[in-house]
Specification:
It is a single chain. The chain is built from 21 helices and ten strands. A hairpin with a 2-residue loop joins strand 5 and strand 6. The protein has a two-stranded antiparallel sheet. It has 550 residues and is mostly helical. Helix 17 packs antiparallel against helix 19. It is found in: Cell outer membrane. This is RagB/SusD family nutrient uptake outer membrane protein. Keywords: Cell outer membrane, Membrane, Signal.
Length: 550
């Protein structure tokens, strides 16, 4: 997709009527008009691909930045200004955002998401020009894609802010007043559902040509519907525990399952290939970055996540409380009293796939997070890039790739996968009292992971499903929103913990362990939602700020 991104800057020039020497060299200046662009399906596809780029968030924007605002991760360099939020310092005045490549931005994205929505609205306003010159069939799939992408953008807004203004018109330079009010949470949900319905009426189940992989499909639209309706059924947004909402969530998840085109990928020993095998059987929708041109913080993933002793950046460090929540191999919970002598032995398989810990084999040697080790804060190798918690992320890292030869590489961000859908379905069925169905799908996930089955009912089953989401979906951007929809967001603001590992033998083969606080955090009630940037409210006084923000 990279060459499409490069071309997009030219397309913007065409649409807006500007020209440059490079364009003039291609054709006479006056030959490029907006009408010409919207009558050319190839140029329209370039435009649609830019919408993909802006609306499908990945890695730091889609997962790690969110995890760093919870009990999953510590952000070593505050690339997304995560500390602003976890220190309780977010205000309407410090919510700048710049997408896509300013990695010092916040994750607010109010302004940039509406900018992307403007592009989707522009598409629907103008795509009829191509229809009128005989390209209707060719453009039909693009319409389904853009309905999906507009739904995705509004879902990103709904997650961050609750109900938002529902804009479908195209604003021009002549529009200098804005009076749109915020829709309610349910109204925004219903608008997204309408967009999803329009997408599902058009999008295919699969694409025959590999060049189309990465485009939205029927499964992608239905997966978005599943996540949306699960959120809407959850306690924070379903205060009366309306059973019909849980039934809608169950039905939406089952619709994805019943497509019968996805299956769980890998096993207990090949679990990480879910993320490194592109477009595998479990992937419903993903964004793949190629290795042709560097896209900082996106296709430098393997370098950014790896420890300093390997010349990596340790950009996101796993918190001790996340490490402790991985069970033992027999399904019992970890405890320092019972397992503290060798805390990394006999853990469940996903622990070894997801976490890089002291002694773990990685790229030809054991990781050395102990004091004085190559990957420690006292290392001679870039100690400023050392993990502050004593752990880094192993999940999603292709260990066969040598980022010391070339720092950027092809990599895949999985936006929707079948494992999540199984857990969505299990959670909804458990809420409906259908324990056997919930257990069936919960234990499918556990069987693939190589861990013992769960047998529980009632609140114990709900707790087991929530625990499974914490482990199975870690670092994928779910935890931040899960603990909010469950009404327990404050647990993500407990102080961030790490581990201090001290050698007790000359050969550095035995150690003592001490849990330490590496980051003090502050919980504030406002943090269920992000603040709307003040500049947006100044432009449109009809916008009402989220609760507890001045």
């Amino acid at each position: 997709m990279k060459k499409i991104y490069i071309t997009f800057s030219v397309l913007l020039l065409l649409i807006t009527g500007f020209s440059c020497k490079k364009v003039i060299d291609l054709q006479p200046t006056g030959s490029f008009t907006t009408n010409n662009v919207w009558k050319d399906p190839s140029l329209i596809q370039v435009f649609v691909n830019q919408i993909y780029k802006e609306s499908v968030f990945a890695f730091k924007d889609g997962g790690f930045g969110w995890g760093s605002q919870t009990d999953e991760l510590y952000s070593n360099f505050n690339w997304c200004n995560e500390n602003t939020y976890i220190m309780g310092q977010a205000t309407p005045d410090n919510q700048g955002s710049s997408f896509p490549l300013n990695y010092s931005s916040t994750l607010n994205y109010w302004t940039t998401l509406y900018s992307t929505i403007q592009k989707t609205n522009l598409f629907f306003q103008n795509v009829g020009m191509a229809d009128s010159v005989g390209h209707g069939a060719q453009l039909n799939n693009m319409k389904g894609e853009v309905h999906f992408l507009r739904a995705l953008c509004y879902f990103e807004l709904l997650k961050r802010f609750g109900g938002v203004p529902l804009i479908t018109k195209v604003y021009t330079a002549n529009d200098n007043t804005f009076t749109e009010s915020r829709a309610t949470y349910d109204q925004t949900r219903d608008f997204i559902l309408t967009e999803i319905a329009a997408a599902t009426a058009i999008l295919p189940k699969t694409y025959a040509n590999s060049s189309d992989y990465g485009k939205a499909t029927l499964g992608a639209a239905l997966a978005l519907k599943s996540r949306l309706l699960l959120y809407a059924a959850s306690p924070t947004f379903n205060t009366t525990n309306d059973v019909s909402r849980w039934q809608a969530a169950a039905d939406a998840a089952k619709a994805v399952i019943d497509l019968n085109i996805y299956s769980l990928h890998g096993n207990a020993t090949t679990y990480n290939t879910i993320f490194t095998d592109f477009f595998n059987s479990e992937v419903i929708f993903s964004r793949v970055f190629n290795a042709t041109v560097q896209e900082d913080r996106y296709n430098t993933l393997y370098r950014d996540l790896s420890p300093n002793g390997y010349n990596g950046y340790s950009a996101y460090n796993v918190l001790e409380q996340m490490v402790e929540d991985f069970d033992m191999a027999d399904g019992t919970h970890f405890s320092w009293a019972a397992n503290g002598t060798n805390p990394y032995q006999n853990r469940e398989p996903r622990f070894y796939a997801d976490i890089l810990f002291n002694g773990a084999p990685f790229q030809g040697r054991g990781a050395q997070f102990y004091e004085g080790g190559l990957d420690s804060k006292s290392s001679s190798l870039s100690p400023w890039n050392a993990s502050k918690t004593g752990y880094t992320i192993r999940k999603m890292v292709d260990e066969n790739y040598d980022f010391n030869v070339q720092p950027y590489s092809a990599c895949q961000w999985v936006a929707f996968r079948l494992g999540e859908i199984y857990l969505n379905y299990a959670e909804a069925e458990a809420a409906l009292g259908n324990s056997s169905e919930a257990l069936n799908y919960l234990n499918k996930i556990r069987a693939r992971a190589g861990v013992p089955a769960v047998n529980a009912t009632g609140s114990a089953l709900t707790d087991a499903i929530r625990h499974e989401r914490r482990i199975e979906l870690c670092f994928e951007g779910h935890r931040f929103f899960d603990i909010r929809r469950w009404g327990m967001a404050e647990i993500g603001s407990k102080d961030g913990l790490g581990i201090t590992i001290t050698p007790t033998s000359p050969a550095n083969t035995s150690f003592t362990y001490k849990v330490t606080t590496i980051q003090k955090r502050t919980w504030v009630p406002s943090f269920y939602y992000y603040p709307i940037p003040r500049k947006e409210i100044q432009i449109n006084p009809n916008l009402k700020q989220n609760p507890n923000y001045n």
